[in-house]
């Protein structure tokens, strides 16, 4: 594997398992639950600094919901996925009181629009609590939301904006939704990851930005992410790996340095000036299904039935 | 005139002139400039409390740029309007240093989308100043921007959001862009108003919200507005007024109370539960032209040629 | 009533009932069915030339489904409306074999986008029948669809385009979907009309175009319409009518000629060069609900459960 | 090179030149023109059957306009590209009389939306010629247009729709606009190809559909295409090729069969069920620039200045 370029904790756990001898996986617990032929849930718990270092992820819980063939999902199955997602989300919410939901990403970029789109479909209640609380069913949660845009269109770090708003409205917790990168094409638009460790905005599709987490926000931050793209570099590296595995004559390359691999990737991709990403041609439709699962699941948390 | 339901200062000045005896217009100065057959500029200056009370507008300058037949504008004329708009905007900017531009309104509502749409077409520079200042031409202004959404979708007062962000990034001035209401169908999508007095978000198309101005933000606030809708009630009131003027038999109604007029409006409109507004059928196309003028004009201020 | 400017047959029937002495309504049958507090169905049957002349509508059946408070509809109620709509639609389909569905209107104009939007959400099957029929459930209907655009963007009469395609693919029937005009603000985005008499494209929001019906297409044409706008002229005329009714002093106007009324409307509206229309401010959201009802209802017809 | 999977004639010509001995290139003429540092034009003429067979493209002219760094293009440069594009387009139009412009592709799929988007920005004149010819400047061309949608949303072959409409309105020529595939990442969103040989709809991003050309339409067909995607398979094949070139140890693979290479590609990509394509992350913005060049260039042809 060329590098560890994935935001998915269960992918990293998988990689760890293969690379590290058993017994050394101290600090990482992995659980699997098969809900149906189509739906499964993986929970990765990073318990301590050792696990965090091994996995390259902060201490906390990472839940991934995996859905096979989401492009042909029935209404029944969709309802089931929403149930599971809502259940797992609520498990991670260990705070009462107002919630700020943040939709990260650029709504005008196909691979990056899931955050802002979810925000538009949420049942926002904070202003109703303030002006017409009698309209709200019992047990409704106090929720406000914002899609702050991205650095390139606002000129402000997302963290700056969210932190300013959080200071002002004082939520008891924050939920952020973002597109993620995967280093595994099989995960694209098939997985929802929920974690209680916060997020680095734009990790999925751009430069690393400042973290949005408990340290920077002062309240718990739950992150919901969906892998929408794989970098083109990943495909090149995969090809290299498969070749060296498949042909004995290439075994001499097995120990080639990171630098050598990186040079190869650069050689293949440099004719294009742009940031090349790999996406399913069907991304628009697949992303719509994901968006519906997440917004419906959060709405069920906001107004329990 | 049934009521004073307009955000346009020059409309109000017009009304004042007709209703108030000359000499009493102390505190209001009005100037006109005809740029061409197609373009004219009106400046209304509210100098003191008396003028402010008479006009129902805060002390400050209100500039309106009027464009005839914007639906058939040539590229030459468009360029000229952008020049004029940019010139008038710069006149009102009496501060140096970073600027925060705010696009008010709901980008998914046709009559309310001009603010968020302008934001998307601006040349944002704040992050370039921070990370790659060498890329910027000399005299470039430091500008960041946000489209915060509306109360119904965020649950937060727009003023809360902007004030929080302004406290954090400390701009030397704020520019807000919003759709306005007019009480005059002839002004729809024909006029751009610029003022240095701030704005009440959503004044154009909904309930009154909290002001965004020097008092609440701590820095100068310049407002740019375009009238996109007239309330249906205005059309009813106009009909009533014209009838009572036109037919002597109706003269007895001339002195009918506000209450009586209001009852009539209610009678006509109450069969619909919804907030009825009057818009040109061509609104989408007309609004696009307005959006281009405003974004190009602001960009010329950001990066002078 | 200033004129008969409505596409809704049940509105016209209502007007007829009030204006024409009983017994003379030969050729028009009206039936009502209350499904629930929220949903009702009205059927107007125009049986002969006399009825057609009286009503100003072609001979055939006109069904209107009325939904109260569609803006706060529950999922249960939405499902019920879809059931009713689907049931009534199937009643009117008296042909077997391939169906061509046509979404009329301009998808970039808020008041006119319902036709093209419905098309995008249909379960199209014609190409699957041709290339992979084994994928289709039993009893699936053979359906293809097109959103041809409007005269202003294509340069072609909609009738020309549809007729050319129909000649080529030879459907056994055509279903067209379009936005309608109403002369009654209470009907806006509250009603779906289904008829087996065809349609005049753009009747709702523009100039009269050539008919799409059995005569011009050679196969049965079923029309589905939703009133989305009222012309501003209607509001003016309504005000005039209510004033003359309410104030005895105005009784002299009761017999004013069409010309006089028309002059009044012109006087009120002429300050604007544009085609002024009245819409609910909430139109985008309301139209989305209508779009879902129609596309889901047609899909149920295509693939019966 | 794994296969010949590109719609760009100049790419194919380049490949031919490298693979075929000089002198055998009978039937293919290639010309280059450098307009500026940023803009160049390549013309490939396929003169006879031999050239057609060698190049795998129909007999005719293929012009490619190449633009470096289109993401930072100035207004001056944009104007220049539009000039060049318009000039080259007019050169290929060897017919008088009405023109039908067809925007191929799916406007809701990022990589495939350029055709329908261009259509929306054209100056359509056919209906004005019919109803108000006095409004049109002298020398205006009679143009109508349609964006017919794709097989998956219409159920009809694009060729069926266009052929039916062409039979009905009888244009003297057809212009089609479509997204293309390239097998070279350096060409993505950098090139416009114009040819007088027609097009196979969806060649760029899906299955091969029926040709739209002189044979099937009965009138000349000019095709305008922009490469927007590379298939992920191309990246895998490129990696393989570069590896075998770079490492002597792999020379034994140089003669590996098509089957072996194909198996490798499949191995790398099969973990994803979807059709993986490679696009610049910046595709939305880049495609907007391309769309403006093409619509402005065609408009200049319609209404000469």
Secondary-structure map with pairings?
Four copies of one chain form a homotetramer.
Chain A: H1 9-19, E1 28-34, E2 39-46, H2 49-55, E3 60-67, H3 75-92, E4 99-103, H4 114-120, H5 126-131, E5 143-146, H6 151-154, H7 158-169, E6 173-181, E7 191-195, H8 214-217, E8 221-231, H9 232-246, H10 258-269, E9 276-280, H11 283-302
Parallel strand pairs in A: 4-5, 4-6, 6-8
Antiparallel strand pairs in A: 1-2, 2-3, 3-7, 7-8, 8-9
Task: Explain how this protein is built.
The structure is a homotetramer of 305-residue chains. By secondary structure, the first copy, chain A, is an alpha/beta fold. Chain A has a single domain, classed as HybD-like (Rossmann fold). Chain A is built from eleven helices and nine strands. In chain A, helix 3 crosses helix 11, helix 4 crosses helix 11 and helix 9 packs across helix 10. The longest helix of chain A is centred in the C-terminal third of the chain and has 20 residues. The termini of chain A are far apart. In chain A, 52% of the residues are buried. Chains in contact: A-B, A-D, B-C, C-D. Chains A and D meet through helix 9, helix 10, strand 9 and helix 11 of A and helix 9, helix 10, strand 9 and helix 11 of D. Strand 9 of chain A pairs antiparallel with strand 9 of chain D.
């Amino acid at each position: 594997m060329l590098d560890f370029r994935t935001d998915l904790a269960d992918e990293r756990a998988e990689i760890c398992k293969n690379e590290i001898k058993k017994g050394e996986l101290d600090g990482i617990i992995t659980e699997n639950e098969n809900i149906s032929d189509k739906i499964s849930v993986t929970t990765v718990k990073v318990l301590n600094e050792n696990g965090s270092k091994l996995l390259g992820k902060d201490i906390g819980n990472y839940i991934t919901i995996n859905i096979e063939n989401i492009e042909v999902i029935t209404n029944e199955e969709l309802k089931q996925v929403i149930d599971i997602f809502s259940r797992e989300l609520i498990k991670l919410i260990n705070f009462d009181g107002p919630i700020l939901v943040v939709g990260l990403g650029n709504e005008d970029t196909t691979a990056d629009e899931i955050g802002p789109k979810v925000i538009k479909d949420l049942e926002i209640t904070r202003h109703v609590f303030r002006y017409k609380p009698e309209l709200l069913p019992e047990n409704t949660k106090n929720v406000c939301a914002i899609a702050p845009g991205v650095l390139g269109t606002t000129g402000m770090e997302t963290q700056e904006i969210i932190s300013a708003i959080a200071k002002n409205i004082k939520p008891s917790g924050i939920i952020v939704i973002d597109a993620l990168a995967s280093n595994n094409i099989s995960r694209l638009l098939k997985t929802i990851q929920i974690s209680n460790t916060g997020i680095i905005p734009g990790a999925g599709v751009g430069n690393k930005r400042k973290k949005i987490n408990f340290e920077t926000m002062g309240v718990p931050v739950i992150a919901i992410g969906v892998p929408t793209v794989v970098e083109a570099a990943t495909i090149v590296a995969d090809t290299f790996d498969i070749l060296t595995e498949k042909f004995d004559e290439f075994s001499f390359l097995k120990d080639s340095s990171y630098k050598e691999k990186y040079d190869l990737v650069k050689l293949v991709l440099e004719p294009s000036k742009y940031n090349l990403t790999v996406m399913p041609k069907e991304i628009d439709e697949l992303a719509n299904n994901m968006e519906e699962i997440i917004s419906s699941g959060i709405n069920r948390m906001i107004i329990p039935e």
